[in-house]
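Before the break, one more example. Copy the sequence into your notebook; we will annotate it together after we see the structure.
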Amino acid sequence: MAKAGDFVHLHLHSQYSILDGAIKVKELVKKAKEYGMPAVAVTDHGNMYASYELYKTCKEEGIKPIIGQEFYIAKGSRFDKRKGEEGEKGSYHLILIAKNETGLKNLMKLSSIGFLEGFYYKPRIDKDLLRRHS
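Here is what the structure looks like once it is written out:
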């Protein structure tokens, strides 16, 4: 099997990204180890559901877990629940990855706020939250 060397996936969807990802976390980590990858990230759409399992499984397999999320960024305020003009995109995507424990706490806070305050079809955050939690 070919070795990946220093290659690491930083934008990867698991089974928790409905319609975008299908791989289960344990299978992902097993494949990453098989390919000789030193680390692997999971950046699911709008949630961090895979984070604990990724961390636990990677530690068991001797691979560095990289925890992140692909956030939905509201065009304006996360509190705005109006539909945009026809053909206008209502939100954008932004991948954020935790650099350290503080970063992980910020990601968890942003993810929670997206569901609690910004949910409009999808859990959204806005630029104001990004400024406060980065």
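Residues 101-116 form the longest helix (16 residues). The mean pLDDT is 93. Try to locate both features in your own notes.
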